[in-house]
Amino acid sequence: MIASNDIQGDVTWQHGSPHMPFRMADTISGLADEPGNPNALIQSNGYNNKEVSLLKAGDKDSEGNAIMHSFWAPEIHEIDGRLTILFMAGYGNTWSNGKSVYMQLKQDADGHDLDPADPDNWTVPTPIYRNDASLLNGNKQLAATASGGVGMSLDMTYFQDADGRSYYAWQQLGATYIATMDPKDPAHVTSSPVRIVTPEYAWNAAIAEGPNVTLRDGKLYLMFSGSGVGKTYTTGLAVADASGTDLTDPASWTVLNYPIQKSGPFNGEMQLGTGHGMWSEDEDGNQIYVFHAYATKNLGSVNAAGRDMFVRRVHWAADGMPVFDMSSSEELASKTVSVTVKVVDDTVTVDKTDLSKALASAKQLRESDYTAASWKAFAAALASAEKVYADENASQKDVDDATAALNKAQAALVKVDGSDSGDGSSDSTKPGDGSSIDAGATGDKTGNKLGLSKTGAAVLGLSGVAVALAAAGIALTLQRKRQA
């Protein structure tokens, strides 16, 4: 964790001890001040035993210039695989003499990061300038003006769009600017700075600063802060497409005309001067919102007049907008919840026995025995039934319907010799021609030699048996004549 050191409201000179505090822990709660523990609270001189100071007044930047104050709005980012801190360094004895700089964590010979809590493991702060292609009248300063002046550049942040392009966004001249950059050269922007958010509403009329960006569902959400730095400070939002968009074109950004967070009651207490937040995540991967507001002593800080850091879960509404102020009662209805769980066996057994039998019977039939029209309908029903039988996800209704359709199609088969059933339910004898009946010609594999259905065979009367025997005798007599 890294933050501006706002001691009793003096974020510039910090009551004579300007420095950059840094905390490190395994959990978010491990970073926090601890009410009741004097060894884990910010003291009146701006130090906390949980912290180390990465920089202090008098430390020099890469150009040999002494940084004397501020160390404003530091942010930690990973740029080209390097842990990087962006912040505003203050020079001289004027609070407005400041510019954006960066420093990176050193690595060992194997490319492993060194201990970030050791100040010696960081490179010296390096100013960030325009590259040669984006100079303004030959001036390399980010906040250069057309008239030749130079303003402050501060609150710098880094992000990438969905297409992998990298950007810096920061505040200068009272508005939020953006430019492309090359991660391998963090010391320069690669395009001319462009203003994308300006103070234009009553709630941010004084300034538009502190940008920070997250990517979600194909959109880039850039939060920024407005109004005067004080109890009226508030947070706004600008949204752009994350891919296929020129983010350096102001028209690519849609700025909400209302604040997404402002001073007001929260969890039964007033929160004042909320703003300059950033998107982050906790140790469980939950997205969180980190911001500052004016605290009171009962929140665990001795800095009653200064601003403290707060952390809150980010929720997303149905309209795609972030929700920063969901109260504890809205997040969790109660610390203890009674839940009744009924475990039901949802295993469904599908019986395919009848379908299997129907398929076995159907596959014994020969296409040549039936008319083309009736066989076409039967073949379609057979193919459908085979598909259902092979489908592991078929329901019982699917199986029953396929079985019925196949049986119906088989019963509707018309034989070439004029009979009208594929299951042998009609008599294939041609009356009056004196010819014999071929007992095997129309039979099925079950021994139903007369081609009768199983039901018909079961109800065959004595007369039927006599006819069958007579037919067999005739056939036998004819066979003997042929042998003679």
What brief labels describe this structure?
484 residues; alpha+beta; Tachylectin-2, Chain A; Substrate Binding Domain Of Dnak, Chain:A, Domain 2; 3 domains; six-stranded mixed beta sheet; four-stranded antiparallel beta sheet; 7 helices; 28% strand; elongated
Task: Report on this structure.
The protein is 17% helix and 28% strand. Strands 7, 8, 9, 10, 11 and 12 form a six-stranded mixed β-sheet that branches. A four-stranded antiparallel β-sheet has the order 3-4-5-6, with no helix packed on it. The chain has a four-stranded antiparallel β-sheet with strand order 13-14-15-16, with no helix packed on it. It is elongated, with a radius of gyration of 42 Å. It starts with 18 loop residues before the first strand and ends with a helix. The C terminus is likely disordered.
CATH architecture grouping of the largest domain: 5 Propeller
Estimated share of beta-strand residues:
25-35%
Under CATH, the homologous superfamily of the largest domain reads Glycosyl hydrolase domain, family 43
CATH level 3 topology of the largest domain: Tachylectin-2, Chain A
What are the secondary-structure elements, in order, as H or E?
A: EHEEEEEEEEEEEEEEEEEEEEEHHHHHH
Question: Biggest β-sheet, characterized?
Answer: 6 strands, mixed
Radius of gyration: 42 Å
Percent helix, as a range, is 10-25%
End-to-end distance, in Å? 113 Å
What's the tally of helices? Answer: 7
CATH hierarchy, class of the largest domain: Mainly Beta
Oligomer: single chain
The domain tally reads 3
The stretches of 5 or more residues where confidence is low (pLDDT under 50) are: 297-304, 424-484
Shape verdict: elongated
Structural class: alpha+beta
